[in-house]
């Protein structure tokens, strides 16, 4: 690699942004040349994040397309929903390549976005232009493009766990039920009643039942794969841990396939994709087994008694569910090996 690509991070003071800083610090092809803030420009990022002391000594920049373009060629956006839709036109106009980690460009329908996110949608041309960066499935489509929409954390774990079976017709898509759990960092750094210590510690609760914004994202992709509309039941839970997502999925098996058949199907589908690890029959992944890494681990159990399969998929929400997958997409966008700078061994215990 001769010269490094300069990148900027908008939303660098949030959990997704600061995870990008951590991972990119050891990426051999990238230099982070601008970290921005809409509320603390001019101050050092290490003021809010002392763990970055001496690692990032620069000051936070304003969120300004021309300023960012003067320092970088690629920009990651890690802001709350409703902001990237406003920033993307000027960033593209300035000549930047953009990878958006928020949900603003994932749904192809403006109406669907407005219904589920309760915010104004991006202009249709940007929804049409953005390539959905579920790297193991749409990686080829990401190569060389200017605008990538990084999948949501729950959809990443869920879709990687379902797509091969839906595509091969091993399960009936109309029977899928998804039961998902997330660590609290999934809610971002801003404090709220629902996520402060006394509310979360020693507690386990469901939220956004039948109203979660990731439902249409999951259904959009499964519908594409199945070739017909798919609707699912998807329930999210908050777990008193910092990182990690487990998505447990149930569906009726079609064709009498066994757990071993599922293992073979998934190993073939993900052959050569280093970040998806398929567990052998009879073993199921746990969140700690992928923590701090870009892995998605998947296990299966077919119950002959009920004719249903249970699929368990785990990721680290901040890595494979956000910053790691965004870097994987950057690698594909640049025509590099998708694993560049991402070969972290999970942190255990
Ligand atoms: N946390 C997770 O596990 C995942 C998060 N995501 C998505 O990634 C995005 C970021 O999430 P996360 O990092 O957790 O969120 P945080 O709340 O931790 O951080 C968001 C950051 O956005 C910045 N911001 C807020 N308003 C604006 C604005 N108007 N213009 C520019 N920047 C702004 C803020 O920084 P400042 O005030 O300094 O500008 C803030 O630090 C969200 O859309 C989230 O849904 C996706 C997958 C997983
Ligand atoms: C624990 C927790 O609150 N998680 C968030 C995930 C946010 C996210 O990744 O959503 P978008 O990027 O699609 O907005 C949630 O369930 O809404």
From TrEMBL:
Location, primary (coarse class): cytoplasm
Locations listed in the record: Cytoplasm
Pfam families: Semialdhyde_dh, Semialdhyde_dhC_1
Domain Semialdehyde dehydrogenase NAD-binding: 6-145
GO molecular function: N-acetyl-gamma-glutamyl-phosphate reductase activity
Catalytic activity: N-acetyl-L-glutamate 5-semialdehyde + phosphate + NADP(+) = N-acetyl-L-glutamyl 5-phosphate + NADPH + H(+)
Record-annotated active site: 153
Keywords for this protein: Amino-acid biosynthesis, Arginine biosynthesis, Cytoplasm, NADP, Oxidoreductase
Family statement: Belongs to the NAGSA dehydrogenase family. Type 1 subfamily.
Name assigned to this protein: N-acetyl-gamma-glutamyl-phosphate reductase
Species in which this protein is naturally found: Paenibacillus plantiphilus
Gene behind the chain: argC_1
């Amino acid at each position: 690699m001769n010269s490094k690509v300069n990148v900027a991070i908008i939303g660098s003071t949030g959990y997704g942004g600061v995870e990008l800083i951590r991972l990119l610090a050891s990426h051999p092809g990238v230099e982070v040349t601008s970290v921005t803030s809409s509320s603390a420009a001019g101050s050092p990022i290490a003021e809010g994040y002392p763990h970055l002391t001496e690692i990032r000594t620069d000051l936070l920049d304003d969120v300004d397309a021309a300023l960012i373009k003067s320092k970088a060629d690629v920009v990651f956006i890690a802001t709350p929903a409703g902001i990237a839709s406003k920033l993307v036109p000027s960033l593209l106009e300035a000549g930047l390549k953009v990878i958006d980690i928020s949900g603003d460009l994932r749904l192809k329908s403006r109406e669907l976005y407005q219904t589920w996110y309760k915010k104004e949608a991006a202009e249709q041309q940007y929804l049409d232009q953005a390539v959905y960066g579920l790297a193991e499935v749409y990686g080829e489509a990401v190569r060389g493009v200017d605008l990538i929409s990084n999948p949501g954390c729950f959809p990443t774990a869920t879709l990687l766990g379902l797509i091969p079976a839906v595509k091969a017709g091993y399960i009936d898509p109309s029977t899928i039920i998804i039961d998902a759990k997330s660590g609290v960092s999934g809610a971002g750094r801003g404090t709220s009643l629902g996520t402060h210590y006394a509310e979360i510690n020693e507690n386990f609760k469901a939220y956004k039942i039948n109203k979660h914004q990731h439902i249409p994202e999951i259904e959009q992709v499964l519908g594409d794969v199945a070739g017909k509309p798919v609707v699912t039941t998807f329930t999210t839970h908050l777990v008193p841990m910092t990182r990690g997502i487990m998505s447990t999925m149930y569906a009726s098996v079609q064709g009498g396939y066994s757990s071993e058949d599922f293992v073979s199907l998934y190993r073939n589908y993900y052959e050569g994709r280093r970040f998806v690890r398929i567990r052998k029959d009879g073993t199921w992944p746990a969140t700690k087994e992928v923590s701090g890494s870009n892995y998605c681990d998947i296990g299966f159990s077919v119950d002959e008694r009920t004719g249903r399969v249970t699929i368990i998929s785990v990721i680290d929400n901040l890595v494979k569910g956000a910053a790691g997958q965004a870097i994987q997409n950057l690698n594909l966008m640049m025509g590099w090996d998708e694993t560049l700078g991402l070969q972290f061994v999970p942190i255990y215990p």
